[in-house]
């Protein structure tokens, strides 16, 4: 138990996993909120649990001593429930499966699972759902007995794919709007604390959004570090050269890991990250 009994770290026994799970006891909720830390190390899982608890309980500042337990960053405006997260994953998988069969009806379940990064059992389950709901028709007409069956999108399946594409675009737009708003708030914090320069750690679309947000807030002196095997050396060099600079996480692939490394090298008081990236 950590954080005044608000969090319990455990490992599942019904489905063995090397990752630590956390059960968060949130006032006003009948059941604990359960999340996976996605890290096997207990110390890292504890740090992740403290950050996540702060986002789930933004109004209870006394739960965690942020100056000692975690670097300062903007508290989350909301915490998505497990049910909503699961629904988003299911829609995302359904969209990618329909798109895959639209490109190649003869795609095997093994190859589909490999492309999507899921197990064959999960792929089989979702393909079965698509067939049962009439989104995909299974053709058993084979040129030879060694050929695989083809999965052909029906008219209902194409209409559903179009709806899922619209949902995907809207979700991404909502995510990037929220991300930009949080980077603007981080910029205000940097200005209020007297930081004259900002180092963005991570490249890509997220970094581009952060640069736009910082430019709109009038913060100059923005530099960028790409996350690669040599990134630690460059971060250490920048931490020594930029004494009056802040470090902002803009890496999308592994923001939690980048966040932890920055705290160790540059110090917690100089590291900032939007909650929408941390603990997702």
UniProtKB/TrEMBL annotation:
- Gene3D superfamilies per the record? Winged helix-like DNA-binding domain superfamily/Winged helix DNA-binding domain
* Taxonomic lineage from the root: Bacteria, Pseudomonadati, Pseudomonadota, Alphaproteobacteria, Rhodospirillales
Record protein name field = Uncharacterized protein
Q: Which organism is it from?
A: Hypericibacter adhaerens
Which Pfam families does the annotation name? HTH_24
Q: Which InterPro entries match?
A: WH-like_DNA-bd_sf (IPR036388), WH_DNA-bd_sf (IPR036390)
